[in-house]
Design goal:
The complex is a heterodimer of chains A (307) and B (374). Chain A is mainly alpha-helical. Chain A contains 11 helices and 4 strands; from the N terminus they run H-H-H-H-E-E-E-H-H-H-H-E-H-H-H. Helix content of chain A is 73%, strand content 4%. In chain B, the strands form 3 sheets. Chain B has a two-stranded antiparallel ribbon with strand order 1-2. Chain B has a two-stranded antiparallel ribbon with strand order 3-4. In chain B, strands 5-6 form a two-stranded antiparallel ribbon. The relative contact order of chain B is 0.15. With 374 residues, chain B is mainly alpha-helical. Classes of the chains: A mainly alpha (307), B mainly alpha (374).
Chain lengths: 307, 374
């Protein structure tokens, strides 16, 4: 029983990170109908910037919590600039181009970012400084540490904030209008370009937070960390129904749970034939199964019919 | 026999163009060997291999308009099929004439296996499912060394038999009509034959009933269905046809390399092949070939150029050449797509469909029917 609970907790922690990154994918997709393949690299850049800032500040002897806050701010700001720049350079000129053209520029941008990071920060694994207390708590036989608790809490906070922003503010209404019908929104006086830029910046800020969460949880930063995380988060967004904010959150948490439960139980289920190294296979099988029965994801309402 | 006019150059005599092309292609390995060294002949071999892959993916993405992000899985199926059936792994050494077609068939079967449940999905949902399928295949290859050792896991399979038949092996130097042909040259000619076959099949498919059905589905699936096209079967056909080409090139790859491991079949490879198709010009055979050649040659040229140019500019190596080369490669992808969003050499039919100017369309149609000369 305690193993089960432990896997659930691990899954929730992992899932909240996926959910934050998935929100970035789904917001952009909802508005532009575009898979932003460079989003995973934005997560990586966020983590790297936070690493550098916190290393610099820790040397001056500031208290760790303050360092974390400043690092978070700087990383989020840097990623917002980056997200804005990516949209401006690689996507905006191609808004009326064939559908696959922006996909290729996205791949190009992601290759560029990855190699820039490799040039700046090197190929090696960096240890992320420990900025949060790491007390352990036992919860019905399962163990959870402070970092993991804070990750879940912050993720919950960010998601609530985003939902409020999208559903309660003027900007949120503009975003929903552009997602529904860009030309109609433009005729109603919505500045589409500004809304799209803001969407990219919001998604990138969430990505920065997610990047710091992953690094704090595992204590490791690496120039390659973005691609696999981005892939998982994209899967999560599709699982929940891409373009749908609640879907991205649900998909993220579900994917985290599937993965950790899969890793924990796949060996017993298959009589020891499959080990935990098949956890990704398990996740993708669930995804395919879900899509066969619900072709537009769990919460997706309509199938995008863009040619 | 009169072949008529060469399609891309209305004034040229088709026979003359083909003759020049044939001489260039036949002489290429010798010229490259003499000017640039043996390594570049190997790169030419890989360029041909990737052209085959890109043309296979072009059927799925370019003709039928189905975004496939896991195409390398079929390449892997073909390669592992060859490796398992003719290497010391199981002690099997089946003849290449059995193994290669079998790899194509097996890959085609996997294409149907993937396509049958998922082709109801549209656009980007299909993309993620194919991506997942590619990853599933790769993870299986990586882990099927326990409890029963099938694929030898991450170490991969080595000592794979070269392509050989009737006592002649392409893995060693051969004498043909008094000309000494090293192994890479032999493989070049083998791959050239297969590439020409794939080009021929693609060309015939493009103008066939099936090809037109694919394009109808690409432009508007609902309308295509209303016209009586069985969209499910036709889409499945595109998937399995593309997969077959992938499996065939996979077998050739395994024989050529003599060693394969799951590392060669990562998502990056799928993405690279997709880039060749889109960058060159989706749906246009010439464009796809151009994309394949460019994306194989560009990183290699940058590999050899990035270090020395830095030396020359700054007097020392400032940036790791490997990173710099991929950085420039990424930049090139972005710039090319920004300058030419439809690809370097887009298909004329698509251009005609996308053109706003009706008079222009009519003129082009008349030209294509009656020829440009009055």
């Amino acid at each position: 029983m305690d193993i089960f609970l432990q896997q659930i907790l691990n899954g929730l922690v992992q899932g909240s990170v996926y959910a934050l990154v998935a929100l970035g994918y789904t917001m952009v997709y909802g508005i532009l109908g575009l898979i932003n393949f460079a989003h995973g690299e934005v997560v990586m850049v966020g983590a790297m910037v936070a690493l550098t800032v916190s290393q610099l500040l820790l040397a001056t002897g500031l208290p760790p919590l303050l360092v974390l806050l400043i690092a978070l701010m700087v990383a989020a700001a840097a990623c917002m600039v980056l997200g804005y720049g990516i949209e401006r350079i690689a996507y905006r000129p191609l808004r009326n181009a064939p559908r696959l053209a922006p996909l290729i520029t996205a791949i190009g941008v992601s290759i560029v970012l990855q190699n820039l990071a490799m040039i700046f920060w090197g190929r090696e694994y960096h240890a992320f400084p420990q900025l949060l207390p790491n007390g352990l708590h036992t919860l019905g036989g399962a163990v959870i540490n402070d970092v993991q608790l804070i990750i879940m809490l912050v993720a919950l906070l960010m998601m609530t904030g985003l939902m409020l922003l999208v559903h309660r503010t003027r900007l949120g209404r503009a975003m929903r209008a552009v997602a529904e019908n860009p030309s109609a929104a433009m005729l109603m006086g919505v500045d589409i370009n500004r809304v799209i830029s803001v969407t990219f910046m919001l998604g990138s800020a969430l990505a920065a937070v997610a990047g710091i969460m992953v690094s704090a949880n595992y204590g490791i930063v690496h120039y390659y960390m973005g691609s696999i995380l981005g892939l998982k988060a994209f899967t999560a967004a599709v699982l929940g129904g891409i373009g749908n904010l609640r879907g991205a959150m649900l998909g993220g948490v579900l994917l985290g749970l599937i993965e950790s439960l899969g890793a924990g139980y796949i060996g017993d289920l298959s009589g020891g034939f499959f080990g935990s190294n098949y956890q990704d296979v398990f996740a993708f099988f669930v995804l395919i199964a879900v899509l066969i029965f619900r072709p537009s994801g769990l919460l997706g309402e309509r199938v995008a019919e863009r040619a | 026999m009169n072949l008529g006019k060469f399609p891309y150059c209305k004034k040229c005599n088709a026979w003359r163009v083909f003759a020049v092309l044939a001489i260039v292609l036949l002489a290429l390995p010798f010229v490259t060997d003499a000017l640039l060294g043996r390594g570049w002949v190997r790169i030419a071999d890989f360029a041909l291999l990737y052209i085959m892959l890109a043309l296979g993916l072009n059927i799925v993405v370019g003709y039928a308009g189905l975004l496939d992000l896991g195409y390398v899985a079929f390449f892997a199926v073909g390669a592992y099929n060859y490796a398992l059936l003719s290497s010391p792994q199981f002690g099997l050494h089946w003849p290449v004439w059995v193994v290669l077609p079998l790899g194509g068939l097996l890959a085609g079967f996997f294409g149907v296996l993937l396509g049958a449940p998922t082709l109801r999905l549209r656009g980007d949902y299909l993309a993620i499912v194919t991506l997942g399928f590619g990853e599933i295949i790769r993870i299986f290859l990586n882990n099927l060394n326990a409890p029963v050792n099938v694929t030898n896991g991450p170490q991969g399979i080595s000592m794979i038999d070269p392509v050989q038949s009737g006592g002649i092996s392409l893995g060693s130097t051969q004498q043909v009509f008094g000309i000494t042909l090293p192994s890479v040259h032999l493989y070049y000619y083998l791959f050239l034959c297969f590439t020409l076959l794939v080009i021929f099949v693609s060309l015939r498919l493009e103008n066939s009933r099936i090809g037109r059905a694919w394009m109808a589905i690409r432009e508007d699936e609902v309308a295509a269905e209303a016209m009586g096209i069985n969209t499910r079967n036709i889409k499945l056909l595109a998937f399995s046809m593309g997969a077959t080409f992938g499996g065939l090139s996979g077998g050739l790859f395994a024989g050529f390399q003599g060693f394969i491991s799951p590392e060669s079949f990562s998502l990056t490879e799928s993405v690279m092949i997709l880039c060749m198709v889109v960058l060159g010009g989706m749906g246009n055979i010439g464009g796809v070939i151009l994309g394949g050649v460019l994306l194989v040659l560009l990183p290699e040229a940058l590999r050899n150029g990035a270090g020395p140019v830095q030396q020359w500019l700054f007097g020392k190596t400032l940036v790791d050449p490997e990173s710099l080369r991929m950085l420039l490669f990424g930049l090139a992808l972005v710039v090319v797509m920004l300058v030419r969003p439809a690809g370097l050499w887009p298909s004329t039919q698509r251009r005609r469909e996308l053109s706003d100017d009706d008079d222009d369309v009519v003129k082009q149609e008349l030209e294509s029917v009656y020829g440009s000369s009055k």
